[in-house]
Write a structure and sequence with these properties.
Blueprint lengths: L8 H17 L8 H9 L3 E7 L5 E6 L2 E8 L4 H8 L2 E4 L4 E9 L2 E10 L9 H16 L4 H5 L7 H9 L4 E4 L2 E8 L7 E8 L2 E9 L3 H20 L4 H16 L5 E9 L4 E7 L5 E4 L2 E5 L18 E4 L5 E5 L1 H4 L10 H14 L4 H16 L7 E8 L3
Antiparallel strand pairs: 1-2, 1-6, 2-3, 4-5, 5-6, 7-8, 8-17, 9-10, 10-11, 11-12, 12-15, 13-14, 13-16, 16-17
Helix pairs in contact: 1-2, 1-4, 2-4, 6-7, 7-8, 10-11
């Protein structure tokens, strides 16, 4: 059996069952050995799994107990093109190396390289095998440090470790809705975070920025995110979330400590976006491939200072609309020449990506990369992006 052989449903089913059974009996630390089974099923002579780093700027091979060799950049490489565009590319002859993007839903996690002595561009078995492989890798990676070791392109602070473990997947889609987020500086992030849930009625989301830096800020951000999750999962209203976070920060972190944020919902059937602004810059709207301005919501006080909800804003979205929420660390970042990144530059990059039909996940990665290139010497403050795209037929 190999990737060039057309299989009937029964044969393909047996191949997928074999992959599942082998992966199921492997110890958690042996996640990289799943690739060996994939090679056997599709007829490859060798295989390598490369994992994307936290900042989505590089890829590194996963070995038996973590990373192997040096990281390779995403920008300007074949592997990087496969990762960013989600394509399958074959390079070379005898052997031919087939590069396949690894995507969990819409979250890109890395790439797979397979070597074939003979390849005829008809991977009839490869696609479904890779889909099952990704599901097994994600499940197995929860039980071992090998995967997260491979995500490190540089040392991760303890505060950033907590923050990354708090996050949902960086990208997801549901009927009519796509979301994507990213954190910077990826390896020393402090008080910024985001959260979302795609439920039957649509999307519920939050983006927060806790006062200060380091572990104290992370703990406040974690408390805020989990308080909002609690209200959401208990069926509470947006205003209830504001009250609960406000009380939790005041009670457990003391006077004059606070968390800013925006949180809300998007109804997938009506397209109505509702949100509370607790001291954040207004989100940006791209409509009909142009910048349509900022979405205004009269701000409530940051949570923790005893305020009340001033306004729950509503905006009916149209198909194709994109709404970008962000923290002030994005627009207030400065270049080496002390030039401010600013709202106009952020909006311009967002419009360019939209006009180029770049998916939501790749859009926020490019926005983050553009910000880092503009700054040149590392960010002075946390910077977070959270993008919502609404599409209905």
């Amino acid at each position: 059996m190999d990737a060039r052989s057309p299989l009937d449903d029964a044969s393909l089913g047996r191949a997928l069952i074999k992959l599942y059974e082998v992966a199921n009996i492997l110890p958690p630390v042996a996640v990289a050995r799943i690739v060996d089974t994939v090679c056997e099923i599709v007829g490859a002579t060798a295989g390598r799994l490369h994992v994307a780093d936290y900042g989505l700027q590089s890829l590194r091979e996963l070995g038996p107990d973590g990373p192997v060799g040096d990281s390779m950049p995403i920008a300007g490489t074949v592997a990087g093109r496969v990762f960013t565009d989600g394509v399958t590319l074959a390079t070379g002859e005898h052997p031919t190396v087939v590069h396949v993007a690894l995507v969990d839903g819409t979250e890109r996690i890395g790439i797979l390289e397979l070597e074939f002595d003979d390849w005829d561009d008809e991977p009839l078995v490869l696609a479904p095998v890779v889909v099952v492989m990704v599901s097994l890798l994600v499940a197995k990676s929860r039980y071992t440090d090998a995967w997260v070791r491979c995500r490190r392109a540089e040392p991760l602070t303890a505060a950033a470790e907590v923050q990354w473990d708090l996050l949902p997947p960086l990208a997801a889609t549901a009927t009519g809705i796509a979301v994507a987020g990213i954190l910077e500086p990826a390896y020393s992030i402090g008080g910024d975070s985001f959260d979302y849930a795609l439920n039957s009625a649509g999307l519920e989301f939050a983006i927060v920025d806790a006062m200060g830096r380091g572990m104290s800020a992370v703990l406040m951000a974690s408390a805020a995110i989990n308080a909002l999750r609690n209200v959401r999962r208990e069926g509470g209203e947006l205003a209830d979330g504001y009250v609960q976070v406000d009380e939790m920060i005041a009670t457990h972190f003391g006077n004059f400590r606070f968390v800013t944020g925006q949180f809300g919902s998007l109804d997938s059937s009506s397209g109505v976006l509702r949100w509370i602004n607790a001291g954040h810059p207004p989100p940006l709207l791209v409509r009909n491939d142009t910048f349509a301005g900022e979405l205004e919501c009269e701000p409530s006080m940051p949570m923790g200072l005893g305020g009340t909800v001033v306004q729950i804003a509503e905006e009916p979205l149209q198909t194709g609309d994109r709404v970008l929420f962000y923290t002030d660390g994005i627009t207030e970042s400065r270049s080496l020449d002390d030039e401010v990144f600013g709202v106009e530059r952020l909006a311009d990059y967002l419009v360019r990506a939209t006009n180029d039909r770049v998916p939501a996940a790749e859009t926020v990665r490019r926005l983050s990369a553009n910000l880092l290139a503009f700054v040149g010497s590392g960010l002075r403050d946390d910077a977070t992006l959270f993008l919502i795209e609404y599409r209905v037929d």
